[in-house]
Amino acid sequence: MPNAEGRKVALITGVCGQDGSYLTELLLEKGYIVHGLKRRSSSFNHPRLEHILDKDYPNSKNFILHYADMVDSTSLTNLLKVTQPDEIYNLAAQSHVKVSFELPEYTAAASGMGALNLLEAVRGAGLADKTRIYQASTSEMFGKVHEVPQSETTPFHPRSPYGVAKVYAFWIFVNYRESYNMFCCNGILFNHESPRRGETFVTRKITMAAARIKLGLQDCVSLGNLDAKRDWGHAKDYVEAMWRILQQDKADDFVVATGITTTVRAFCEWSFNRAGLPLRWEGEGVNERGIVASGEHEGKVVVKVSERFFRPAEVELLLGDPAKAKAVLGWHPEQLTSVEKLCEEMVDADMELAKLEIMNVEMKKKLKVPY
Question: CA 156 to CA 252: how far, in whole Å?
């Protein structure tokens, strides 16, 4: 139910991330009061939200940040008692697949048990009958895929600690929906990117490298499996699907995807071409190289393959079937941002960031500021 002002109240965990920033914008535009959960950090950890926190941003007064943590159930319960949300979007996770092999216990705690902590906090705050809850599930749960494309009925076979943790979170949401009649939903989102994507994720790593190499700030980029195939969409489009999932009459689970698969190699080619560095490939396996095919940098090796970036258990192909989301949610990916346009948008944004970096370096030189 809306609050006394007639506005719906939403709580977003993981609000500092890519999806959290886009979802905050969407909900504020729809008139929500939005509360965001952020973890305490000794470093600045919400640059994606600075424009929203600015007093001149539309409805910025309706966006409030709070400290809490998914592995601290008491902090979650207290936050829910204060905010009394109509809707919760659980986007919090340790979401880097490669890192999950290095931090398996923390990944399980944050991405798996964190979902259980949130559900118990909802019950503990007396909101089980009021609050609708969205869980950010992931295509990584399919892992070693049992069928192509993957739909809501495809069996899970995760290939990373991150994927395993997310499978637990998925099923605990289903269990609480069936056990306590709570409005718990899973959005099984396939890969979604944007200029706000973290710099360690492969798409952003590629677009940043293309821009920086073009402007002389970087020599080369090292990647892992160039032939891995992913279903990539735009994060701004995908948060619309999240919102639609919680507006349904019945709690349910949905695959959110484009239905189109693209290789890392192709994304790399589009990115470097957009930056004015068309590629050709030489060699095989870990000896393969991406070389600038023409222009002032012709012959320069700009892409290398490194075993360091291969996963212990590789996921070769992810391709989602969005038929249910189309039919039930009215969400039509074919009408939204194409992966080529997404790639261009990311490269263009990273070109601007690289130019700013150059300007900052030059300014420091003029002012004789130590680096």
Answer: 17
Q: Clarify whether residues 138 and 281 are in a common domain.
A: no
Query: For the segment 243-256, what is each residue's pLDDT rounded down to a tens digit?
Result: 999 999 999 999 99
Q: Looking at the structure, do residues 352 and 277 belong to the same domain, yes or no?
A: yes
Q: How far apart are CA 344 and CA 341, in angstroms?
A: 5
Whether 334 has a pLDDT exceeding 80, the answer reads yes
Measured between its terminal Cα atoms, the distance across the chain in Å is 53
In a domain, 240, yes or no: no
Indicate if 142 and 176 belong to the same structural domain: yes
* Host H or E run for residue 51: helix 50-53
Q: How far apart are CA 306 and CA 310, in angstroms?
A: 7
Q: For the domain that residue 143 is a member of, what is the CATH number?
A: 3.40.50.720
Measure Cα distances from 257 to 12, 230, 334 in Å: 22, 10, 10
CB environment 311-346: b (16+ within 10 A), e (fewer): eeeebebbbbbbebbeeebebebeebbebeebbbbb
State the catalytic residues: 138, 140, 162
SS3 264: helix
Q: Which domain holds residue 42?
A: 9-189
Distances from the Cα of 199 to the Cαs of 3, 80, 111, 112, 195, in angstroms? Answer: 38, 32, 20, 24, 9
Radius of gyration of the chain (CA): 21
Query: Which residue, chain included where needed, has tokens 């973290």?
Result: 198
**Sequence-distant (≥ 6) Cβ neighbours of residue 179 within 8 angstroms:** none
* Chain segment 34-84, per-residue pLDDT in tens: 999 998 765 556 889 999 999 999 999 999 999 999 999 999 999 999 999
Total length of the chain: 371
Average pLDDT estimate for 228-248: 97
Q: Would you state the structure tokens that stand for residue 74, as one six-digit string?
A: 């008491």
Domain identity same for 214 and 79: no
Query: How much is the average pLDDT of 121-138?
Result: 98
Judging by beta carbons within 10 Å of its beta carbon (0-12, 13-18, 19+), is residue 29 exposed, middle or buried?
exposed
- Using a cut of 0.85, tell me whether the model's pTM lies above it: yes
